């Protein structure tokens, strides 16, 4: 065997080893790849509690309460010390910034918040209903990322509003239902638009075990 013919098999073997190593590392990353999920750590010195009020809540309508319970994989037991991060557009469908933002705030904008669940697993955000993207290409939605103890951060299906005319049947059927369905049903409670969503850790999440 000449040098050229001996190098090619060695190169292919090395390439296969590298790809296999990458696949092994990816398989350990709960939820798979997640661009921007690290924004969940950008709360700085804020003390996280089960309730947070996002900027703009007092000044925008309709005001919105986003609430629910984070449950363990059995779908019954409340999960404690789970961080939940959300962000969304303004009423015009734009991720609004003030200028001078750093980190993921440059893309996620100013309407974002963080909570951490207590023993009862409950979480609540006070915000306002976001607008659809200006081009009408996306329904109104709220992005969500979670971080549970002893696992890396990962994203869930966005909150979508069941009464949104832009939420097509195709969009509904294409949902991955990560953490359970993200389609919420707005109702008025105590004078404020309210949506409830319970989150089941690990449900439909790749590489969770």
From TrEMBL:
Q: Does the keyword Transcription regulation apply?
A: no
Q: Which InterPro entries does its entry note?
A: Intradiol_dOase_C, Intradiol_dOase_core, Intradiol_RC_Dioxygenase
Q: Which Pfam families match?
A: Dioxygenase_C
Q: Which UniProt keywords apply?
A: Dioxygenase, Oxidoreductase
Q: Where is the Intradiol ring-cleavage dioxygenases domain?
A: 63-151
Q: Which family does it belong to?
A: Belongs to the intradiol ring-cleavage dioxygenase family.
Instruction: State the protein's name.
Output: Intradiol ring-cleavage dioxygenases domain-containing protein
Q: Which organism is it from?
A: Sphingobacterium ginsenosidimutans
Q: Give the classification, highest ranks.
A: Bacteria, Pseudomonadati, Bacteroidota, Sphingobacteriia, Sphingobacteriales
